[in-house]
Amino acid sequence: MADTAAGAPLLDVRGLKTYFHTEEGLVRAVDDVSFSVSSSEVLGLVGESGCGKSVTAFSILDLIPVPPGRIEGGEILFRGKDLLKTESHERRRISGNHISMIFQEPMTALNPVMMVGSQITEVLKLHTLLDSHDRWEKAIEMIAKVGISEPRKTAKSYPHELSGGMRQRIMIAMALVCDPDILIADEPTTALDVTIQAQILELIKAMQRETSAAVILITHDLAVIAETVNRVIVMYAGKIVESGDVKTIFTEPKHPYTQGLLKSIPVLGEPGKLLESIKGRVPNLIDLPPGCHFANRCPFARERCFEEHPRLVEVDSDEHEVRCNLYYD
Ligand SMILES: Nc1ncnc2c1ncn2[C@@H]1O[C@H](COP(=O)(O)OP(=O)(O)O)[C@@H](O)[C@H]1O
Ligand code: SF4
Ligand SMILES: [Mg+2]
User: Fold this and answer.
1) Which atom of ligand 1 is nearest to 57's Cα?
2) Which ligand is nearest to the CA of 47?
3) What is the CATH classification number for the domain harbouring 275?
4) Global confidence as pTM
5) What domain range is 234 assigned to?
6) Is residue 290 domain-resident?
7) Is 64 among the domain residues?
Protein backbone atom coordinates (compact mmCIF):
# COMPACT_ATOMS: atom_id res chain seq x y z
CA MET A 1 0.00 0.00 0.00
CA ALA A 2 2.99 2.28 -0.49
CA ASP A 3 2.73 5.39 -2.63
CA THR A 4 3.51 5.05 -6.32
CA ALA A 5 6.90 6.68 -6.22
CA ALA A 6 8.93 7.67 -3.20
CA GLY A 7 7.44 10.88 -1.88
CA ALA A 8 4.65 11.01 -4.48
CA PRO A 9 1.23 11.47 -2.90
CA LEU A 10 -1.39 8.77 -3.11
CA LEU A 11 -4.01 11.28 -4.13
CA ASP A 12 -3.18 14.62 -5.66
CA VAL A 13 -6.01 17.02 -6.42
CA ARG A 14 -4.86 19.92 -8.58
CA GLY A 15 -6.84 23.01 -9.49
CA LEU A 16 -10.18 21.21 -9.16
CA LYS A 17 -13.19 23.20 -10.34
CA THR A 18 -16.63 21.70 -9.89
CA TYR A 19 -19.50 23.97 -10.88
CA PHE A 20 -23.28 23.57 -10.95
CA HIS A 21 -25.21 25.16 -13.78
CA THR A 22 -28.50 26.09 -12.13
CA GLU A 23 -31.41 28.24 -13.27
CA GLU A 24 -30.35 30.87 -10.76
CA GLY A 25 -26.82 30.96 -12.12
CA LEU A 26 -23.43 29.30 -11.95
CA VAL A 27 -22.57 27.82 -8.54
CA ARG A 28 -18.80 27.63 -8.16
CA ALA A 29 -19.00 24.96 -5.46
CA VAL A 30 -15.33 23.97 -5.68
CA ASP A 31 -13.17 26.61 -7.27
CA ASP A 32 -9.53 25.86 -7.95
CA VAL A 33 -8.88 23.54 -5.04
CA SER A 34 -5.53 21.76 -4.73
CA PHE A 35 -4.36 19.37 -2.04
CA SER A 36 -2.74 16.00 -1.70
CA VAL A 37 -2.94 13.04 0.63
CA SER A 38 -0.23 10.49 1.32
CA SER A 39 -0.84 6.95 2.45
CA SER A 40 -1.31 6.60 6.21
CA GLU A 41 -2.14 10.28 6.47
CA VAL A 42 -5.31 11.59 8.08
CA LEU A 43 -6.40 14.85 6.49
CA GLY A 44 -9.16 17.01 7.96
CA LEU A 45 -11.31 19.01 5.53
CA VAL A 46 -13.13 21.66 7.51
CA GLY A 47 -15.59 24.48 6.88
CA GLU A 48 -19.16 25.50 7.57
CA SER A 49 -22.05 23.96 5.72
CA GLY A 50 -22.11 24.94 2.03
CA CYS A 51 -18.37 25.52 1.65
CA GLY A 52 -17.80 22.77 -0.92
CA LYS A 53 -16.50 19.92 1.24
CA SER A 54 -18.90 17.24 0.04
CA VAL A 55 -18.67 18.39 -3.57
CA THR A 56 -14.88 17.96 -3.30
CA ALA A 57 -15.39 14.39 -2.03
CA PHE A 58 -18.05 13.59 -4.64
CA SER A 59 -15.76 14.91 -7.38
CA ILE A 60 -13.05 12.46 -6.31
CA LEU A 61 -15.54 9.58 -6.32
CA ASP A 62 -17.26 10.53 -9.59
CA LEU A 63 -20.55 11.09 -7.78
CA ILE A 64 -21.34 14.58 -9.10
CA PRO A 65 -24.80 14.66 -10.72
CA VAL A 66 -24.26 15.70 -14.36
CA PRO A 67 -26.15 17.93 -15.17
CA PRO A 68 -26.40 20.28 -13.31
CA GLY A 69 -22.85 19.59 -12.07
CA ARG A 70 -19.71 19.52 -14.16
CA ILE A 71 -16.04 19.26 -13.42
CA GLU A 72 -14.77 22.25 -15.31
CA GLY A 73 -11.08 21.91 -14.69
CA GLY A 74 -8.22 20.40 -12.80
CA GLU A 75 -6.78 16.97 -12.22
CA ILE A 76 -7.47 14.23 -9.69
CA LEU A 77 -4.37 12.06 -9.69
CA PHE A 78 -4.64 8.70 -7.95
CA ARG A 79 -1.22 7.04 -7.82
CA GLY A 80 -0.23 9.43 -10.60
CA LYS A 81 -3.16 8.57 -12.88
CA ASP A 82 -5.64 11.35 -13.68
CA LEU A 83 -9.07 9.98 -12.80
CA LEU A 84 -10.70 12.76 -14.83
CA LYS A 85 -9.06 11.41 -17.98
CA THR A 86 -9.86 7.78 -17.17
CA GLU A 87 -12.69 5.96 -18.95
CA SER A 88 -15.78 5.78 -16.75
CA HIS A 89 -15.80 1.99 -16.16
CA GLU A 90 -12.11 2.02 -15.22
CA ARG A 91 -12.70 5.05 -13.01
CA ARG A 92 -15.53 3.30 -11.18
CA ARG A 93 -13.30 0.26 -10.71
CA ILE A 94 -10.59 2.42 -9.16
CA SER A 95 -13.06 4.29 -6.98
CA GLY A 96 -14.79 1.06 -5.94
CA ASN A 97 -11.63 -0.89 -5.13
CA HIS A 98 -9.39 1.79 -3.75
CA ILE A 99 -11.47 4.69 -2.43
CA SER A 100 -14.35 4.19 0.02
CA MET A 101 -16.70 6.71 1.51
CA ILE A 102 -18.80 6.90 4.66
CA PHE A 103 -21.59 9.42 4.98
CA GLN A 104 -23.13 11.54 7.70
CA GLU A 105 -26.40 9.64 7.97
CA PRO A 106 -25.91 5.89 7.65
CA MET A 107 -29.69 5.35 7.56
CA THR A 108 -29.84 6.82 4.06
CA ALA A 109 -26.76 4.95 2.88
CA LEU A 110 -27.86 1.55 4.22
CA ASN A 111 -30.56 -0.52 2.59
CA PRO A 112 -33.48 -0.58 5.10
CA VAL A 113 -34.80 -3.99 3.99
CA MET A 114 -31.53 -5.90 3.99
CA MET A 115 -29.72 -7.44 6.97
CA VAL A 116 -26.58 -5.44 7.68
CA GLY A 117 -24.39 -8.55 7.39
CA SER A 118 -25.72 -9.13 3.88
CA GLN A 119 -24.96 -5.52 2.97
CA ILE A 120 -21.33 -6.16 3.86
CA THR A 121 -21.30 -9.41 1.88
CA GLU A 122 -22.67 -7.52 -1.14
CA VAL A 123 -19.57 -5.33 -1.10
CA LEU A 124 -17.39 -8.45 -0.93
CA LYS A 125 -19.32 -10.01 -3.81
CA LEU A 126 -18.52 -7.01 -5.99
CA HIS A 127 -14.87 -6.78 -5.10
CA THR A 128 -13.59 -10.25 -4.15
CA LEU A 129 -13.75 -13.86 -5.32
CA LEU A 130 -14.80 -15.21 -1.90
CA ASP A 131 -17.65 -17.75 -1.88
CA SER A 132 -20.84 -17.00 0.01
CA HIS A 133 -19.80 -18.81 3.22
CA ASP A 134 -16.48 -16.97 3.38
CA ARG A 135 -18.16 -13.68 2.58
CA TRP A 136 -20.51 -14.12 5.54
CA GLU A 137 -17.65 -15.07 7.85
CA LYS A 138 -15.62 -12.09 6.67
CA ALA A 139 -18.63 -9.83 7.32
CA ILE A 140 -18.90 -11.17 10.89
CA GLU A 141 -15.17 -10.65 11.40
CA MET A 142 -15.50 -7.08 10.17
CA ILE A 143 -18.49 -6.37 12.43
CA ALA A 144 -16.48 -7.61 15.41
CA LYS A 145 -13.53 -5.47 14.34
CA VAL A 146 -15.55 -2.27 14.43
CA GLY A 147 -16.29 -2.95 18.09
CA ILE A 148 -19.74 -4.56 18.00
CA SER A 149 -20.00 -7.14 20.77
CA GLU A 150 -22.42 -9.70 19.30
CA PRO A 151 -21.35 -9.74 15.67
CA ARG A 152 -23.31 -12.85 14.61
CA LYS A 153 -26.54 -11.52 16.06
CA THR A 154 -25.92 -8.01 14.72
CA ALA A 155 -25.17 -9.33 11.22
CA LYS A 156 -28.76 -10.55 11.06
CA SER A 157 -30.22 -7.21 12.17
CA TYR A 158 -31.85 -4.62 9.95
CA PRO A 159 -30.59 -1.02 10.09
CA HIS A 160 -33.63 0.29 12.01
CA GLU A 161 -32.93 -2.22 14.79
CA LEU A 162 -29.57 -0.61 15.49
CA SER A 163 -28.62 2.64 17.21
CA GLY A 164 -27.11 5.52 15.22
CA GLY A 165 -23.65 4.72 16.54
CA MET A 166 -24.00 1.02 15.64
CA ARG A 167 -25.18 1.93 12.13
CA GLN A 168 -22.16 4.16 11.67
CA ARG A 169 -19.94 1.27 12.83
CA ILE A 170 -21.58 -0.92 10.17
CA MET A 171 -20.92 1.77 7.55
CA ILE A 172 -17.27 1.83 8.60
CA ALA A 173 -17.16 -1.97 8.34
CA MET A 174 -18.62 -1.76 4.82
CA ALA A 175 -16.19 0.95 3.80
CA LEU A 176 -13.15 -0.91 5.08
CA VAL A 177 -13.99 -4.51 4.24
CA CYS A 178 -12.18 -4.36 0.92
CA ASP A 179 -9.12 -2.71 2.36
CA PRO A 180 -9.29 0.61 0.51
CA ASP A 181 -6.26 2.87 0.06
CA ILE A 182 -8.32 5.95 0.88
CA LEU A 183 -11.30 6.36 3.17
CA ILE A 184 -13.35 9.53 2.81
CA ALA A 185 -15.54 10.12 5.87
CA ASP A 186 -18.05 12.93 5.23
CA GLU A 187 -19.32 14.27 8.58
CA PRO A 188 -19.35 10.72 9.98
CA THR A 189 -20.21 11.81 13.50
CA THR A 190 -22.43 14.84 12.97
CA ALA A 191 -25.67 12.96 13.58
CA LEU A 192 -24.39 11.32 16.77
CA ASP A 193 -24.25 12.53 20.33
CA VAL A 194 -20.96 13.67 21.79
CA THR A 195 -19.92 10.45 23.58
CA ILE A 196 -20.66 8.25 20.57
CA GLN A 197 -18.99 10.86 18.33
CA ALA A 198 -15.73 10.40 20.25
CA GLN A 199 -16.02 6.61 20.04
CA ILE A 200 -16.55 6.65 16.28
CA LEU A 201 -13.59 9.00 15.75
CA GLU A 202 -11.50 6.71 17.92
CA LEU A 203 -12.61 3.75 15.83
CA ILE A 204 -11.73 5.52 12.56
CA LYS A 205 -8.32 6.34 13.99
CA ALA A 206 -7.74 2.77 15.19
CA MET A 207 -8.86 1.29 11.86
CA GLN A 208 -6.66 3.75 10.02
CA ARG A 209 -3.64 2.65 12.05
CA GLU A 210 -4.40 -0.99 11.39
CA THR A 211 -4.99 -0.70 7.65
CA SER A 212 -2.68 2.28 6.95
CA ALA A 213 -5.34 3.67 4.66
CA ALA A 214 -5.24 7.40 4.04
CA VAL A 215 -8.27 9.13 5.53
CA ILE A 216 -9.97 12.35 4.49
CA LEU A 217 -12.15 13.37 7.40
CA ILE A 218 -14.72 16.01 6.52
CA THR A 219 -16.38 18.06 9.24
CA HIS A 220 -17.88 21.46 9.98
CA ASP A 221 -16.59 21.21 13.56
CA LEU A 222 -12.88 21.87 13.79
CA ALA A 223 -12.80 20.94 17.47
CA VAL A 224 -13.78 17.31 16.91
CA ILE A 225 -10.78 16.50 14.76
CA ALA A 226 -7.94 17.89 16.88
CA GLU A 227 -7.08 14.43 18.17
CA THR A 228 -7.68 12.60 14.92
CA VAL A 229 -5.99 14.31 11.98
CA ASN A 230 -2.40 15.09 10.97
CA ARG A 231 -3.17 17.97 8.66
CA VAL A 232 -6.06 20.41 8.24
CA ILE A 233 -7.49 22.12 5.18
CA VAL A 234 -10.01 24.87 5.84
CA MET A 235 -12.48 25.62 3.04
CA TYR A 236 -14.63 28.70 2.67
CA ALA A 237 -17.03 29.44 -0.19
CA GLY A 238 -15.49 26.86 -2.53
CA LYS A 239 -11.85 27.76 -1.88
CA ILE A 240 -9.09 26.65 0.45
CA VAL A 241 -8.43 29.53 2.84
CA GLU A 242 -5.87 27.89 5.12
CA SER A 243 -3.96 24.65 5.38
CA GLY A 244 -1.27 23.35 7.66
CA ASP A 245 -0.37 20.65 10.11
CA VAL A 246 -2.87 20.16 12.89
CA LYS A 247 -0.74 21.67 15.65
CA THR A 248 -0.08 24.84 13.66
CA ILE A 249 -3.74 25.27 12.78
CA PHE A 250 -4.84 24.87 16.39
CA THR A 251 -2.09 26.93 17.99
CA GLU A 252 -1.38 29.56 15.35
CA PRO A 253 -4.40 29.88 13.08
CA LYS A 254 -3.75 32.76 10.68
CA HIS A 255 -6.94 33.16 8.67
CA PRO A 256 -9.68 35.14 10.44
CA TYR A 257 -12.15 32.43 9.37
CA THR A 258 -10.11 29.64 10.98
CA GLN A 259 -9.75 31.76 14.09
CA GLY A 260 -13.55 32.17 14.16
CA LEU A 261 -14.13 28.43 13.66
CA LEU A 262 -11.86 27.68 16.58
CA LYS A 263 -13.90 29.96 18.78
CA SER A 264 -17.19 28.26 17.84
CA ILE A 265 -18.50 25.96 20.52
CA PRO A 266 -21.00 23.09 20.27
CA VAL A 267 -24.59 23.76 21.32
CA LEU A 268 -25.49 21.48 24.24
CA GLY A 269 -28.09 18.87 23.38
CA GLU A 270 -27.98 19.65 19.67
CA PRO A 271 -25.44 17.38 18.02
CA GLY A 272 -23.84 18.90 14.97
CA LYS A 273 -24.83 22.46 15.81
CA LEU A 274 -22.29 25.12 16.68
CA LEU A 275 -22.88 28.34 18.50
CA GLU A 276 -22.09 30.97 15.92
CA SER A 277 -19.02 32.95 16.81
CA ILE A 278 -18.59 34.22 13.26
CA LYS A 279 -21.35 36.66 12.42
CA GLY A 280 -23.35 36.19 9.23
CA ARG A 281 -23.32 33.21 6.91
CA VAL A 282 -21.54 31.62 3.99
CA PRO A 283 -22.34 33.78 0.92
CA ASN A 284 -24.40 32.55 -2.00
CA LEU A 285 -21.84 30.99 -4.33
CA ILE A 286 -23.59 32.43 -7.37
CA ASP A 287 -22.09 35.76 -8.49
CA LEU A 288 -19.60 36.11 -5.67
CA PRO A 289 -18.24 39.65 -5.40
CA PRO A 290 -14.66 40.31 -6.62
CA GLY A 291 -12.92 40.69 -3.26
CA CYS A 292 -12.31 38.26 -0.42
CA HIS A 293 -15.33 35.98 -0.02
CA PHE A 294 -15.09 36.33 3.74
CA ALA A 295 -14.97 40.15 3.71
CA ASN A 296 -18.57 40.77 4.81
CA ARG A 297 -18.01 38.69 7.96
CA CYS A 298 -14.40 39.43 8.72
CA PRO A 299 -13.53 41.59 11.75
CA PHE A 300 -10.31 42.72 10.00
CA ALA A 301 -11.79 43.58 6.61
CA ARG A 302 -10.53 46.82 5.03
CA GLU A 303 -11.04 48.48 1.68
CA ARG A 304 -8.52 46.31 -0.14
CA CYS A 305 -10.41 43.16 0.92
CA PHE A 306 -13.50 44.22 -1.03
CA GLU A 307 -11.50 44.94 -4.20
CA GLU A 308 -9.09 42.07 -4.78
CA HIS A 309 -9.39 38.38 -4.21
CA PRO A 310 -6.59 37.27 -1.86
CA ARG A 311 -3.94 34.80 -2.99
CA LEU A 312 -3.02 31.66 -1.13
CA VAL A 313 0.43 32.38 0.31
CA GLU A 314 2.91 30.50 2.44
CA VAL A 315 3.44 31.73 5.97
CA ASP A 316 6.04 30.54 8.49
CA SER A 317 6.84 27.39 6.56
CA ASP A 318 5.85 25.84 3.26
CA GLU A 319 3.47 23.55 5.13
CA HIS A 320 1.30 26.47 6.24
CA GLU A 321 -0.72 28.40 3.64
CA VAL A 322 -3.23 31.21 4.11
CA ARG A 323 -5.52 33.07 1.72
CA CYS A 324 -5.65 36.51 3.30
CA ASN A 325 -4.07 39.79 2.28
CA LEU A 326 -3.00 40.53 5.86
CA TYR A 327 -0.05 38.23 5.14
CA TYR A 328 1.39 39.82 2.00
CA ASP A 329 1.82 43.27 0.48
N1 LIG B 1 -26.75 19.17 -7.07
C2 LIG B 1 -26.47 20.45 -6.82
N3 LIG B 1 -27.00 21.45 -7.53
C4 LIG B 1 -26.72 22.74 -7.29
N5 LIG B 1 -25.88 23.16 -6.33
C6 LIG B 1 -25.31 22.22 -5.56
C7 LIG B 1 -25.57 20.82 -5.76
N8 LIG B 1 -24.85 20.12 -4.83
C9 LIG B 1 -24.18 21.06 -4.11
N10 LIG B 1 -24.46 22.30 -4.54
C11 LIG B 1 -23.93 23.56 -3.99
O12 LIG B 1 -22.54 23.47 -3.84
C13 LIG B 1 -22.12 24.19 -2.69
C14 LIG B 1 -21.23 23.32 -1.85
O15 LIG B 1 -22.01 22.27 -1.31
P16 LIG B 1 -21.40 21.12 -0.40
O17 LIG B 1 -20.13 20.65 -0.97
O18 LIG B 1 -22.48 20.11 -0.21
O19 LIG B 1 -21.12 21.87 0.97
P20 LIG B 1 -20.58 21.26 2.34
O21 LIG B 1 -19.31 21.99 2.59
O22 LIG B 1 -21.62 21.58 3.33
O23 LIG B 1 -20.38 19.79 2.16
C24 LIG B 1 -23.39 24.67 -2.00
O25 LIG B 1 -23.59 26.02 -2.34
C26 LIG B 1 -24.47 23.79 -2.58
O27 LIG B 1 -25.69 24.46 -2.60
S1 SF4 C 1 -8.46 39.21 3.02
FE2 SF4 C 1 -9.38 40.78 4.32
S3 SF4 C 1 -11.53 40.15 4.54
FE4 SF4 C 1 -10.40 38.41 3.77
S5 SF4 C 1 -9.88 37.27 5.58
FE6 SF4 C 1 -8.14 38.60 5.15
S7 SF4 C 1 -8.52 40.47 6.33
FE8 SF4 C 1 -10.43 39.31 6.28
MG1 LIG D 1 -21.37 18.22 3.16
Assistant:
1) 17
2) 1
3) 3.40.50.300
4) 0.92
5) 11-109+182-190+214-327
6) yes
7) yes
In a domain, 124, yes or no: no
Ligand of minimum distance to the alpha carbon of 327? 2
Which of 313, 322, 325, 329, when mutated, tests ligand 2's pocket best, judged by the most ligand atoms within 8 Å of its CB? 325
Domain count, the chain: 1
Q: Which of 236, 279, 305, 329 to mutate to test the pocket of ligand 2 (most atoms within 8 A of CB)?
A: 305
Series of mean pLDDT values for 10-residue runs along the chain (329 residues):
58 98 96 95 95 96 94 96 92 86 84 96 92 97 93 97 93 91 92 84 90 93 87 97 96 94 71 69 88 95 96 90 96
154-164 pLDDT tens trace: 999 999 999 99
C-alpha count within 13 angstroms, C-beta hemisphere, residue 68: 12
The answer to the question of residue 295 being in a domain is yes
